[in-house]
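G., before I forget:
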Amino acid sequence: MSAPEPATDQAPDGASPPSSSAGEIEVLALVAAGELASFARLADDAAHAPELRMRITLSRLAAGELAPLGAVEERARALGADPEALDDSIWSFRELLAEFDARLVPRDWWERLVKTYIGYGIVLDLQRELAAGLTGRSQEVAAAALADKGWGDVVVAALTPVIAAEPQLAARLALWGRRVVGEGLGITARLLAVHPEVAALAAGAAGPWTPEHVTALTGRLTSEHARRMKRLDLTA
Amino acid sequence: MSAPEPATDQAPDGASPPSSSAGEIEVLALVAAGELASFARLADDAAHAPELRMRITLSRLAAGELAPLGAVEERARALGADPEALDDSIWSFRELLAEFDARLVPRDWWERLVKTYIGYGIVLDLQRELAAGLTGRSQEVAAAALADKGWGDVVVAALTPVIAAEPQLAARLALWGRRVVGEGLGITARLLAVHPEVAALAAGAAGPWTPEHVTALTGRLTSEHARRMKRLDLTA
């Protein structure tokens, strides 16, 4: 099942891929793992939806997350990824994202929606930062996978009226949002530490990856997080 | 969000639908609920898959379950279904299917796969029996929704070697398969009792629905179940 696709866009002389493609392949593996994780999370959210229309909407959004997966895998194989090693990479990124999920067990539907919006918002931003160093076809397939598929709007539309109407819930969700971003930044730090080859491709990382890069990246993730909290009218 | 679709294939004189379409709409609601349930179950199976290729395969099969949903809903609305009443019907069938899931908590991956194959096999057969009385466009959309989407083959391919290699596991799975079919027939009985308008459309139910019809239907479901157990080489 994991036979490599024909490497349609490899160098015509059939040379092995340059060693710099190792980081590129790892970033694509992270993107693939992110899609599987988004599918699983939205499907699980759908299964917990309190009414039919929300359930159908979230189920469809989940299904939509899988659409770009094939192209991402195909691109990684075209770059010369060994199929088994690629599967191992995707699986290990998946485990990192599953850990993030396991650490944040929502107590109710509203915490669940905040986790989806805030938590996967930061995971998506992180992936975009790391994919920013991609070019050509890799950049294309990653961009399609990381595009806004509309679940943020769905979640915000569901949460906003409840947050406006119930100050006590809003206070609890603000606290929860801070816990979620804390775990998100924790995952980010772990990912950058364990996968320096991925970090090396990140936006602004021309030259070796330094503590300053990590600080700048964390700053950007935090400010995007603050924007999301503000959109929900929650104290960041 | 639940605004009715234009009733493109209603009678051109705009007359209200005949009362016989009530049963037809209910069967379509059951089919829609079945697709949502299959999506949720396969997505949950995918989330528990022990390795990447199975996870991707089951995630994609889950997504495929949603594809015919829009056409089923559209057809029910074209038959004159009130959007809110239709949502309520789908939701109540969903609850019945969720009860089936809640009663059968698999202890491991293999029991999970047997539950998917045996349990949803019987649920699918039941839906096919009840949809057999549909005609025209309703028949078409139900047939597309209830078509074999290949997950049976995936599950059988995964289970067969393990069952052949581990007699003790095979014995446990045979017991579990019998529990699953018991719950499946229980759900069937409850559905037929609570929804006589659905039962009235079932295969062979020309005229009022009688205990003999129920017996005949149960017999057909049981023999299809036996065929599946045999395919897994489990004692029915």
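The interface with chain B takes residues 1-2, 36, 39-40, 43-44, 46-47, 51-53, 55-57, 59-60, 62-63, 66, 69, 87, 90-91, 94 of chain A (CB under 8 Å). Chain A has one domain: 21-231.

More on Monday.
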